[in-house]
Amino acid sequence: MTKEMQMMLVPQGSLEGYIRAANQYPMLTAEEEKELAERLYYQQDLDAAKALILSHLRFVIHVARGYSGYGLPQADLIQEGNIGLMKAVRRFNPEVGVRLVSFAVHWVKAEIHEYVLRNWRIVKVATTKAQRKLFFNLRKTKQRFGWFNENEVAMVADELGVSVDDVKEMESRMTGQDMAFDLPTDDAEESYSPALYLEDKSSDFAMELETENYENQANEQLNEALSALDERSLDIIRSRWLDDDKATLQDLAAKYNISAERVRQLENNALKKLKSAVAF
């Protein structure tokens, strides 16, 4: 098995080492991603599929961290997310016009959801599709409300579009989460109980990751562009735009013994160079 193929499997040992290795694979530009996706979609190019998967391993790690409150091994959550990623890559159509990360997030979360439900301590906590939807939404809502009174039960039922009885039944299943069927093997009185929270569904992981990547690239290019300016132009940009106490054109004109208009020209020329350098 090659090193690249091993990266698709999460080791049971050093999770930190796996995460560091996954973050070393660079993210793809839109053009690179489209070219690889077309090779896979039209030519069944497995090397292209591998490149798409490896470049998105960090995204799966990002999503899996949102499910750490269930007390399940992080490596297993990531592994299940990787299965969803591979399914998404296999089904991704480059002609749809969206980035792979936006398409794959649904497949990654679906696999992690199934794993959470299969391994949750309460027997048959959610046996139907409707109950599964209620389970994940109710956990998020319970974090916001704590223990429910009658008014809160009615409010949750209305918010989730289910009956009051459904909410009460699901809550009764979930309140027993500290009662494990397998007794501890030692004399320790404290047992592990997952925290009552789920990842914030109002946030878009795909958009957050793309935005973070864009900002990192922009900052790197801006720093490179600033270092390419001559000393006087760099000082003018810093004094006029970056310092807390911003200098006036007249201040800089006196400092360099030139006219205020010449300072403005130097400033405009430097800004044009910076704008060109960070343009995507």
UniProtKB/TrEMBL annotation:
Residue ranges for the DNA-binding region feature of this UniProt entry: 249-268
Motif Interaction with polymerase core subunit RpoC positions after renumbering to this chain: 76-79
SUPFAM superfamilies: Sigma2 domain of RNA polymerase sigma factors, Sigma3 and sigma4 domains of RNA polymerase sigma factors
Transmembrane segments: none
Gene Ontology MF terms in the entry: DNA binding; sigma factor activity
Keyword field: Coiled coil, Cytoplasm, DNA-binding, Sigma factor, Stress response, Transcription, Transcription regulation
InterPro entries (alphabetical): RNA_pol_sigma-70_dom (IPR014284), RNA_pol_sigma70 (IPR000943), RNA_pol_sigma70_r1_2 (IPR009042), RNA_pol_sigma70_r2 (IPR007627), RNA_pol_sigma70_r4 (IPR007630), RNA_pol_sigma_r2 (IPR013325), RNA_pol_sigma_r3/r4-like (IPR013324), RNA_pol_sigma_RpoH_proteobac (IPR012759)
Coiled coil spans: 211-269
GO annotations of cellular component type: cytoplasm
Keyword Ligase: no
Subcellular location: Cytoplasm
Membrane is among the record's keywords: no
Record-linked Pfam families: Sigma70_r1_2, Sigma70_r2, Sigma70_r4
GO BP terms in the entry: DNA-templated transcription initiation; response to heat
Boundaries of every RNA polymerase sigma-70 domain copy: 76-89, 248-274
Spans annotated as Sigma-70 factor domain-2: 52-121
Chain's role: Sigma factors are initiation factors that promote the attachment of RNA polymerase to specific initiation sites and are then released. This sigma factor is involved in regulation of expression of heat shock genes.
Subunit structure: Interacts with the RNA polymerase core enzyme.
Entry's family note: Belongs to the sigma-70 factor family. RpoH subfamily.
Name the record gives this protein: RNA polymerase sigma factor RpoH
Gene encoding the protein: rpoH
